[in-house]
Design brief:
Layout (H helix, E strand, L loop, with lengths): L8 E7 L3 E8 L6 E2 L13 E3 L1 E5 L5 E4 L10 E5 L17 H24 L10 E7 L6 H13 L9 E8 H9 L9 E7 L4 E8 L9 E3 L4 E3 L3 H16 L8 H8 L3 H8 L9 E5 L14 E2 L2 E5 H29 L7 E5 L6 H12 L13 E4 L6 H16 L6 E3 L3 E9 L2 H4 L4 E3 L6 E11 L4 E3 L3 E9 L8 E8 L17 E8 L5 E5 L10 E12 L4 E7 L2 E2 L7 E4 L21 E2 L1
Parallel strand pairs: 1-8, 8-9, 10-17, 17-18, 20-32
Antiparallel strand pairs: 1-2, 2-3, 2-4, 5-6, 5-7, 10-11, 11-12, 11-13, 14-16, 15-16, 19-23, 20-22, 20-25, 21-22, 24-28, 25-26, 26-31, 27-28, 28-29, 29-30
Helix pairs in contact: 1-2, 3-9, 4-5, 4-7
Protein name: Actin-like ATPase domain-containing protein
Length: 604
């Protein structure tokens, strides 16, 4: 967005595994409005649209999306449940490639953008010239800044932030943070500690916050632990049921395409059965699904099919539910134990559930029983804990996403001013050789001063769980520059690790536990530099020593850099600091030699 002018319209987009939600807000920046016009029929209002695409079989062109993508239409190829595959490291249920997931994401988000933009174009006369900010959330499991920035580029290709000169698009919060901002408005009082469990379609995120504001004041939250997530969600139940049906359909010779048939069988009746599973009025012991394509009256005992209907008992469905709720409970308990270790004096007052999976009464009952009267109730820091539900379970993320920006704009301060770093950030350095510390490491000798340096060492600047603010932290660097290097930029390799802080790798040799986050290039023409060995009596080679500071500003999932020298800010954005994220995710090791040691910053 041009200049520092605040947006006039904030639009939040929550792309989910099975559904996508949109909310928006304008001045006076009070409660966000939920976008509901997902079809072209004015009387049809829905809070979310299916995250689904339909491609034409013959041309592979998009035929429809959202509510109009008909799973029962045999002329189209349906694509859905591709969100988790946007993470290149996602390994479970590898149903499609990372590149295919990126293509589906681009196509789907382009459809969403065009539909939403068309809506506002017909209602806001100054749409093309007003200041519009699109805000997006990402799962907590996506911890790599390079990946998030890559997705932001895809969003721009889809059209977000490109409808006018003052339009922009940003990835603002993790889904857990957004949900926490939303539910923290539910009549909570100062010093309440809340554990927010956002259980959606593909991921479940857990965030522990402490309310620092009084009721009626501007919301202030303190994050007590880094946010954690896991691949647990309602859509994963659907995927496993579909796989279960397909495996049984494969025993029927007349069924030529079991996966497609299983997908069509799950429409309607199964969805109602799943949503009502565990509720008091749900008494049916079995579910009978008509087998699409079979004429009436056929029996296939080997596949559990009677009168062309496949029989599924409650135990099968319950097992699939239990797999998800067990993972959910395990994640919550891990966070509670981590809270006990790190903040032993804090007591969790409320466990607040949000997300589509939380709508299940079976899930609610199991979680409530476990933590209020079951085994989980013995955890010391939840005595007297109560379980609550978000006011609108499925909209907590998108409502919180917009509420966060609305408060930041209207009150001048965000709800979350300090975060716990989700990962550890470090920089690859050369360290003065110590036999005890660097035994077995690669060592080079600096011909200018004769000192020995251990190369490819890692200095950890921010450790997982450290409290960080929007101001970030500063780190002093020194770079030795030979005459041939005076006009060349300085580069540094920043790395990231998810390892526990007591097991962080000390060098790039431990490549299985560290990865390159980005390469930062700094123009040293404007920083303080001092000539060394400039007198005739100096025997060493002449060189310049550059002094400067880099300010690291970690967000929910990314890292920004600012260059300072001589007490002044050299760059306001990225004019003197260039960040290359293309190496993100790799385990690249530097190739520092005796000849180019001056290209690498040195730490004593």
């Amino acid at each position: 967005m041009a200049g520092n002018a605040q947006p006039e319209l904030v639009i939040g987009v929550d792309f989910g595994m099975s559904q996508t939600g949109v909310a928006y807000c304008t001045a006076p920046w009070t409660n966000p409005s939920t976008f509901q016009s997902w079809t072209t029929i004015a009387s049809e209002l829905f809070n979310k649209a299916p995250s689904r695409l339909a491609y034409d079989h013959g041309t592979a062109n998009i035929k429809s999306w959202g509510f109009f993508a008909d799973v029962a239409d045999k002329t189209v190829d349906i694509k859905e449940y591709f969100k988790l595959h946007l993470d290149p490291e996602y390994g479970e249920w590898k149903l499609l490639s990372h590149q295919d997931a990126r293509r589906y994401y681009l196509d789907y988000m382009r459809c969403v953008h065009d539909h939403i933009a068309r809506y506002f174009q017909t209602r806001y006369a100054q749409w093309a010239t007003m200041r519009v900010e699109w805000n997006f959330s990402v799962p907590t499991t996506w911890k790599h800044a390079g990946m998030v920035r890559d997705l932001l580029e895809i969003l721009k290709l889809a059209g977000f932030g490109r409808d006018g000169p003052y339009h922009s698009s940003v990835v603002t919060l993790t889904e857990a943070e957004a949900a926490a901002v939303c539910v923290a408005k539910q009549m909570l009082k100062r010093d309440d500690v809340i554990l927010v469990c956002d259980a959606g379609g593909g991921t479940t995120d857990v965030n522990i916050m402490k309310v620092k504001s009084e009721m009626g004041e501007t919301l202030r939250l303190e994050q007590l632990l880094q946010v954690e997530g896991r691949e647990v969600g309602s859509a994963l139940i659907d995927i496993k049921v579909q796989q279960h049906l397909a495996s049984r359909l494969a025993l029927v010779p007349e069924i030529l395409h079991p996966p497609e048939t299983a997908e069509r069988m799950m429409l309607g009746r199964f969805e109602r059965f799943k949503c009502s599973f565990g509720s008091p009025g749900m008494t049916a012991p079995k579910l009978f699904l008509p087998v699409v394509g079979l004429p009436a009256g056929l029996d296939y005992p080997q596949a559990g099919i009677r009168d062309s209907h496949m029989e599924i008992d409650q135990d099968t469905i319950q097992h699939l539910f239990d797999e998800q709720v067990d993972g959910l409970l395990e994640l919550i308990e891990e966070q509670l134990h981590a809270l006990k270790r790190n903040r032993p004096g804090e007591q969790v007052s409320y466990l607040i559930m949000s997300g589509g999976l939380s709508a299940s009464e079976y899930i609610q009952r199991r979680v409530k029983t476990h933590f209020e009267s079951g085994a989980g109730a013995e955890i010391p820091n939840i005595r007297g804990l109560r379980m609550l539900l978000a006011e609108n379970l499925q909209l907590a993320v998108v409502q919180g996403l917009v509420s966060y920006r609305a408060q930041e704009i209207s009150k001048g301060r965000p709800p979350i001013e300090q975060r716990c770093a989700p990962v550890s950030y470090g920089v690859v350095v050369n360290q003065k050789y110590s036999q005890q510390r660097h035994f077995g490491q690669r060592v080079v000798r600096d011909k200018r001063d004769g000192q020995r340096w251990a190369v490819d060492q890692i200095e950890w600047l921010i450790r997982k769980g450290d409290k960080v603010t929007d101001n970030g932290l500063e780190k002093m660097f020194k770079a030795k520059l030979s005459p041939a290097q005076y006009r060349k930029p300085w580069q540094a390799q920043f790395v990231v690790s998810t390892r526990p802080i007591d097991a962080l790798p000390q060098s790039m040799a431990e490549k299985d536990h560290v990865r390159t986050l980005c390469t930062v290039t700094v123009d040293l023409q404007l920083v303080d530099r001092h000539v060394r060995n400039k007198h005739w009596w100096n025997f060493g080679e002449r060189y310049e020593l550059a002094h400067f500071r880099l300010r690291l500003i970690p967000g929910s999932f990314d890292l920004k850099f600012r260059l300072l020298s001589g007490g002044r800010l050299v760059n306001s954005e990225d004019d003197q600091v260039k960040v290359d994220w293309s190496g993100g995710g790799s385990h690249r090791q530097s190739t520092t030699s005796n000849d180019d040691l001056d290209q690498w910053h040195t730490m004593s």
